[in-house]
Amino acid sequence: MNTTTLTIINPRIFEPATFAQLKQAYLTAQPYKHVVIDNFLNAEFADILCDRFPPLSQMKTHYKGLNENKAEDANFQAYDETFRQLKAEYQSSKFIQFLENLTDIKGLSMPDDALGCGTHQGENGSYLDIHIDFNIHPSQDLHRRLNVLLFLNRDWKEEYGGKLEMWDAQVSRCVTAHLPLLNRLVIFETNEISYHGYSKISVPEGVTRKSIYAYFYTKASETATHLTYHDTIFRARPTESTAKKIKTMLKEGLKNVIKRQMKNIGLIQLYYDTLFKLKNRKR
């Protein structure tokens, strides 16, 4: 099938009336600014992405630790052409302008690396504990401002779990949660209180939780002068054991002290490159 002739993004979202509704939803959402857009892509294009999503075994990086169990990859050159087409659409002036007008954040861009766009996938038992994301790109003058998550899970059932949970600033309660349904896009502001994650999934054999992520930034030298660099910061849920809460707190505190120092002396990118090589060597 020649996918180059397909419309990628559903043109409905650019219509003035629809756009006004989306912006109102984004600006008034709780616990932080976000919007959910169903039927984001042309339905046929979304089906192709779903059907041609890379197998879990071929994904580059697999995280299995105290706070996460999932796989990640950003090698779009090895993927079906539709993934590269979507990435190009995300980087287009039309979509960037859409995001800027929706969020009132100007000067957005998406870097052409693994911290710009890629894929996530998790099999049965996958989870991602509640966290806020890194705030500054480790090697570029970029301040992370938006997450754009496209879910590609056909016939996803409520009992599978895996909702994108959005928690309050104190991580005391989940305010809202969204099923990772096929062709559902979630856009949310990333900041120091945008806590999110998903609980452990329970799915049949052969079913995985699949998504494409895109992260958008502004120039850190212009918009992040008040921020101190940190990596992802995980938090345990209130219902989890005291032991896990203590382990998470100690691990995250130590991790961020070390990474902050490495960034200050210009070694943080070398750290990430070495870590990825070691993870891949184990597979």
Helical content (DSSP H or I, runs of 4+):
25-40%
Outline type: globular
Q: Which structural category fits the helices and strands? A: alpha+beta
Secondary-structure element order, N to C: HEHEEHHEEEEEEEEHEHH
**What kind of sheet is the major sheet?**
12 strands, antiparallel
* CATH fold type: Jelly Rolls
Question: How many independent structural domains?
Answer: 1
Number of DSSP helical runs: 7
How far apart are the termini? 33 Å
Topology (SSEs and partners):
Elements: H1 16-28, E1 34-38, H2 43-51, E2 61-64, E3 68-73, H3 81-90, H4 93-103, E4 117-122, E5 127-132, E6 142-151, E7 164-167, E8 174-178, E9 184-189, E10 196-198, E11 209-219, H5 220-223, E12 233-234, H6 242-264, H7 268-282
Antiparallel strand pairs: 1-9, 2-3, 3-4, 3-5, 4-11, 5-10, 5-12, 6-9, 6-11, 7-8, 7-10
Using brief descriptors, characterize the structure shown:
alpha+beta, 12 strands, 283 residues, twelve-stranded antiparallel sheet, Jelly Rolls, 7 helices, globular
Mind explaining what this structure looks like?
The chain has 283 residues and is α+β, with helices and mostly antiparallel strands. It has one domain (19-282): q2cbj1_9rhob like domain (Jelly Rolls, Sandwich). 30% of the residues lie in helices and 24% in strands. The protein contains seven helices and twelve strands. Strands 1, 2, 3, 4, 5, 6, 7, 8, 9, 10, 11 and 12 form a twelve-stranded antiparallel sheet that branches. Strand 2 and strand 3 form a beta hairpin. The longest helix has 23 residues, at 242-264. The two termini are 33 Å apart. The model has no long low-confidence stretch (mean pLDDT 93).
